[in-house]
Amino acid sequence: MTKAGRALMGLTAALGIVLRLWTYRAPELPPERESTPAEKSGMYFEPAPEPEVLTARGLGFRNKTDYAPDLEELINRRIDFAPGDKVLIIHSHTTEAYAMGDYEPTDPYRTLDREKSVIRVGEEAAEVLRQMGIEVIHDETLYDYPSYSKSYENAAAGIKKALAADGKIKAVLDLHRDALEDQNGNALKTAGTAFGQQCAGVAIICGSDASGLSHPGWQNNLGFGLRLQRAMAEEFPGLERDLVLSRYRYNTHLTELSVIVEVGSHGNTLEEAIVAVRAFARCYGEVLTGTTRFSQPENR
After folding, report:
1. What CATH number did the domain enclosing 227 receive?
2. Total domain count for the chain?
3. Cα–Cα distance for residue pair 57/232, rounded to 1 Å
4. What is the pTM of this model?
5. Is 173 left (phi over 0), alpha (psi -120 to 50) or beta?
């Protein structure tokens, strides 16, 4: 091959590399593999910025997005939940447990003992809702075991399967326990009061599309979450913690009336969480069914 031919081949190869670099696009994250907060000791932690305040209601609101939602408008949106509609209770982090004690841990503050984990807390919530005449499906599938990193992906598949099997499911409650530590790594409690007893606090987390993934109903879900928070503040003052609007979806895009609820922290006892979730469940059921003065818009 002549010197000119070799030079031409080299130029063609170089142009090919440049074209490939020019047309390369970083792959998008698959819908159910979105970024999540950093993991530490098998528990999720997110920086907690100073809370913004829903001043007209006096409730704590932590906004982790760049959005500025009209909270007063959202809290007054009507809720579409009719008699016969059902609630699906799941636990994306199914093995989460409370203060170390009378259970066999699989990891720190996690257990396969369903009577000692958030599954027990979820069943307490389900029982309260059933007593209120609301049909509940309690999914006890272990979505975070043995693969914790795929818990939200696994839970998404479970939610989709349940929605496809039963068209009456209109609300999804993903029930967790929080993880809070001081600077020395000591577990912290959340605190509330309900039924005249000291108990854990309850935080609501609402997803959004701020991560770039589709979530067309996030504002309706946020309005529902705000209504739940206000109901707790009205009926069990101090039970409610700040509501968090997250950048991430955490599967709340799969249906409206979908929220994540953190009942207590790993510093709380199971008993404190049970008292708290029974109070929360009563507020949750009342908001869904419109049986309290703060359940539906005030200007209806």
Report:
1. 3.40.630.40
2. 1
3. 12
4. 0.81
5. beta
- CA 173 to CA 89: how far, in whole Å? 5
How far is the C-alpha of 140 from the C-alpha of 131, rounded, in Å?
A: 20
CA 273/CA 279 separation, integer angstroms: 10
Q: Do the domain assignments include residue 27?
A: no
Full domain range(s) for residue 116: 39-289
pLDDT tens for 66-116 read 999 999 999 999 999 999 999 999 999 999 999 998 899 999 999 999 999
Q: How far apart are CA 193 and CA 279, in angstroms?
A: 9
What is the Cα–Cα distance from 255 to 178, expressed in whole angstroms? 23
Q: What is the pLDDT of residues 227-244, one digit of tens each?
A: 999 999 999 999 999 999
